[in-house]
TrEMBL record:
Gene: nusB
UniProt KW Transcription keyword: yes
SUPFAM superfamilies: NusB-like (SSF48013)
Protein species of origin: Knoellia aerolata DSM 18566
Protein name in the entry: Transcription antitermination protein NusB
Role summary: Involved in transcription antitermination. Required for transcription of ribosomal RNA (rRNA) genes. Binds specifically to the boxA antiterminator sequence of the ribosomal RNA (rrn) operons.
NCBIfam families documented for this protein: nusB (TIGR01951)
Taxonomic lineage: Bacteria, Bacillati, Actinomycetota, Actinomycetes, Micrococcales
A cellular component term, taken from the record's GO annotations: cytosol
Length: 136
């Protein structure tokens, strides 16, 4: 797995854990940076991803809710929410080609979630990429 892919997975892990523990992901990130729980410290890219998602949390959640066609955020598997939030951040706000962001999110969904998740993640993030020019 490439370094950036690993960093994205670590960001998903942090976003997922923060939601499960009902703590702010930025606070959890600070905690992990101060006292790592794994051998490899978190990368700057992982930290940037988590901060980017948190900084755009409300808009990301609103857009995911608007374009998810019949699925509320609460109804989605928790890991899918984390993947979609990260993917939406990268598609809408980061300096990452949209196709790369979507492909990475689909790969994470394939590895970490249900059999139906990759298709759902792909469709929703592709829709966000499609409407992105109208969101300014």
């Amino acid at each position: 797995m490439a370094a950036r892919s690993k960093a994205r997975k670590r960001a998903i892990d942090l976003l997922f854990e923060a939601e499960q523990r009902q703590v702010n992901a930025r606070d959890l990130l600070k905690e992990r940076l101060a006292a790592p729980v794994t051998e490899a410290p978190l990368t700057e890219f992982t930290a940037d991803l988590v901060v980017g998602v948190v900084d755009n949390w409300t808009q990301i959640n609103d857009l995911l809710t608007t374009y998810s066609q019949g699925w509320t955020l609460e109804r989605m598997p928790a890991v899918d929410r984390a993947i979609l939030r990260l993917g939406a951040y990268e598609v809408l706000f980061a300096e990452v080609p949209e196709g790369v962001a979507i492909s990475e999110a689909v790969a994470l969904a394939t590895e970490l979630s249900t059999d139906d998740s990759p298709k759902f993640v792909n469709g929703l993030l592709a829709r966000l990429a499609e409407v992105k020019p109208t969101l300014a």
